[in-house]
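Summary for the lay section of the report: proteins are chains of building blocks that fold into shapes. Here we show the chain for Sugar O-acyltransferase (Sialic acid O-acetyltransferase NeuD family) and then a coded description of the shape we predicted for it.
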Amino acid sequence: MKKIIILGAGGLGRQVLAQLQVDYSHGIDWVIGGFVDERGPEVVSESLYYPWLGYPEHFEPGPEHLFVVAIGDPSSRQRQVKLLLDKGAEFVAIRTRCQLGTRSSWGPTFFGYDASCGVDCKIGDFGFIDQETMIGHDVVIGDYVHIAPRCLLAGYVKIENGVVINSGAMIARGVRVGEGAVIGMGAVVFKDVPAGATVVGNPARVIFNKAL
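The coded shape description reads as follows.
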């Protein structure tokens, strides 16, 4: 029997837990083991009925463990995932009640309820794609990407590693979003976004670029 371990016990962790409790899409028998979180046991509410199991740097993954990422900040997510990968941890995709297109592929990424993608998409590792996000055909999404609820990515969009796309954002056909960029809530993006830039508004404009 496999044990699912949730990496991150905040709001996303609680959301992942709720979805795991009804998820059968990955086709194996499992139980929920608990949470690993670098902030310590106090972040795990007793009302969740699952324990804090340790810090990422101290927890020792076993062959019975499967991990799911539930950390919002991509840089923090990458750091904590690496700590566990270096010790042989195995991560799994969760895709409850989703529609993922023909010839599309994805790594160990979490898909919220009713997320969808078109045909011939490539979705990377350790991402978090939240509820009701719609991804068009031929979209490429890198690793450690966070997409909040109800976003829209049109066809041929390319999202590089570590991008954050906030709720309700829309990205037009063929746009490229550079590594580490942030798309603001409700932004409508018609042009390529430089690496490290933060864009907001309709049409979206750059308000900050940490790469400069």
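Put simply, here is one thing we learned. The chain has a mean pLDDT of 93.
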